[in-house]
Amino acid sequence: MDKLVDLSNATLGDLDIVRPTYDRSALTPGIVHIGVGNFHRAHQAWYLHRLMQIGQAHDWAILGAGVRPYDAAMREKLLAQDCLTTLIELDPAQTSAEVVGSMIDYLPIEDGNGALIRAMADPAIRIVGLTVTESGYYIDPVSKGFDASHTDIVHDAANPETPRTAFGAIVAALCLRRGAGQGPFTGLSCDNLQGNGDILRQTVVSLARMSDPSLADWIDANASFPNSMVDCIAPATGPAEIAQAREFGVNDAAPVTHEAFRQWVIEDDFCAGRPDWDKVGATFSDDVHAYEKMKIRILNAGHQILANVGEVLGIETISGCMTHPAIRAMFHRVQADEITQTVAPVPGMMPLTYLELIEQRFSNPRIVDTTRRVAFDGSARHAGFVLPILRDQLAAGRSVAGLALVEAFWARMCAGTREDGSEIVPNDPIWDALRPVAEAARTRPAAWLEQARPYGDLAQAEDFSAAFSDWLSLIWAEGAVAAMNTYTSADNQDGRVQPDRPQRSRSTHTGT
User: Fold this and answer.
1) β-bridge partners, 89
2) Burial readout 219-252 (b: 16 or more C-beta within 10 A, e: otherwise)
3) Cα(336)–Cα(402) distance, rounded to whole angstroms?
4) Model pTM score
5) pLDDT tens-digit profile of 160-211?
6) Separation in Å, CA 327 to CA 296, 320, 354, 482
């Protein structure tokens, strides 16, 4: 490194890496994006940046936004460097970097979200994107409908002009647009939810209906909420990632590392126009569901297979989990025997071929994706990624032994200690509710499945509840590795705990 350059518009010409070739001062906003984390900046912002690099979409620049107080720290970092981000691609064979400039401002974080509402009410804004995590859409975990009882939602319905939530701000902005005789914008969810556009529509329209039914009807009839599937592993940023940017000569307070893979499949339903993202690698499809089902089930559910047992064994990264022989063997068997059975091919990709790709991606040691990050919010991620697969397997009369083992490892992790005795610090929005149940399940496994959130009626599914109880008892009695080896052993064709293993009676299994 010959020199270290403080990242800003003024210093772009001093950088020795790929950087914007377009005039950022001439960009005008067309998108507000709520939730400007690493994934957004490595994914959606990058696709738009690539379009801008070929002379297009200069009227589609991004205004970053957030609705929580903790978003203010990221806003301060990004504004100090003119909203530029260094993306560092960590291919196993090489490392490269480029600066992305498609975001031009970051709106103030304030009570009542006035600045955000005013920005979205501007007719120049034609798309509002969101990456607010899977658990951020106010979905009832059992019914999958809108959770109108949540305190944030109750507040926004009673105070529609000064909302707390992103969705309340969207409703308020759409109200202003309707009042001014303007059309709506497109709401574009980029979160890992199957049918994410449908879920976003449900949340926005349902919230609007609580305070203004006619507005809700107008939104439902005129706004667009396309479904999309997004994919790119972008780990959290810490001192090591900042140091990597410095190795490229860039002093960036918020760089993003990412793998050498991206995918974005989008339903082409935009009520106010869109950038031509397909010119830089995105796919517009009428069957987003098939793509997202493959990705969410094999990749996102696959993450949960690894992260929970990784936490129990004190393995810090996803790639580290993939180098552990017992974990990798369990991962492959659960995927091949159960998860891929519920996934249909998509153009150019069979489920088992996609599994091979995921195994390669998860094994990349240069992507320092922590088990803690991946295990975060298991109450939402198991409900959204793992349990739908389990239900499909049960409905088809196929094995759920591996998925029951995955759930047993989640229950074991939520007890809050690793096998070496160290503490697993709280890692779920409802951790305080999960931990005592996990402790109770140590001696009575059925206690875990009796949680209505997220299991619903699954405690009554004998094949699942029996296997779950067997596995959790074995994990506590003999350890995680013994349970995984039992599951993957060559003579264990049905994937069940063997009769000579310590296990609980069938009456305890089913809670009867």
Assistant:
1) 96, 258
2) bbeebbbbbbbbbbbbbebeeebbebbbebbbbb
3) 10
4) 0.86
5) 999 999 999 999 999 999 999 999 999 999 999 889 999 999 999 999 999 9
6) 20, 10, 19, 11
The rounded distance, in Å, linking the Cα atoms of 361 and 350 is 17
- Locate tokens 């929005």: which residue? 429
Sign of CA dihedral 228, 232, 236, 241: negative
Residue 496's beta-bridge partner residues? Answer: none
Give the residue among 155, 216, 406, 209 at the shortest CA–CA distance from 303: 406
Question: CA–CA separation, 65 vs 167, rounded Å?
Answer: 13
Query: Which contiguous run of DSSP H or E holds residue 485?
Result: helix 480-488
Contacts of 316 (CB under 8 A, 6+ apart): 310, 370, 371, 372
Two tokens, residue 138: 């106010």
Question: Which DSSP helix (H) or strand (E) runs through 62?
Answer: strand 61-65
How far is Cα 275 from Cα 295, in angstroms, rounded to an integer?
A: 24
Q: Are 331 and 322 spatial neighbours (Cβ–Cβ below 8 Å)?
A: yes
Q: Does residue 499 have a cis peptide bond before it, meaning omega lies within 30 degrees of 0?
A: no
Query: Over pLDDT 90: what percentage of the chain?
Result: 92
pLDDT at 507: 28
What are the distances in angstroms from CA 326 to CA 320, 407, 480, 481? 12, 17, 9, 6
Q: For each of the domains in the chain, give its residue range(s) and CATH number, in order of start.
A: 5-286 (3.40.50.720), 289-510 (1.10.1040.10)
Planar angle of CA 100, 101, 107, nearest 5 degrees: 120
Q: What is the pLDDT of residues 62-103, one digit of tens each?
A: 999 999 999 999 999 999 999 999 999 999 889 999 999 999
109 is written with which tokens? 């974080």
pLDDT at 115 over 60: yes
Give me the residue label for tokens 């403080």.
6
Alpha helices in 159-212 (DSSP H): 166-179, 196-211
How many CB atoms are closer than 10 A to CB 195?
17
Long-range CB contacts (within 8 A, 24+) of 322-329: 322/359, 322/362, 322/363, 323/363, 323/365, 326/480, 326/481, 326/484, 326/485, 326/488, 327/484, 328/359, 329/484, 329/488
Rounded Cα distance between 484 and 329, Å, is: 8
Report how far apart the first and last C-alpha atoms of the chain are (Å, whole number).
Answer: 67
Torsion 290-291-297-298 (CA) sign: positive
Element (H, E) at 275: none
Phi, psi of 361 (to 5 degrees): -65, -45
CA 284 to chain centre: 21
Residue 277 tokens read as 């993202």
Quick one: which of 300, 275, 299 has its CA closest to 129? 275
Q: Which residue has the tokens 């804004």?
A: 125
Listed in sequence order, the residues at least 6 apart from 363 whose beta carbon sits closer than 8 Å to its beta carbon are 319, 322, 323
Q: Which tokens belong to 263?
A: 């995918």
Q: Are 192 and 388 contacting, i.e. CB atoms less than 8 angstroms apart?
A: no
Tokens of 254: 């918020």
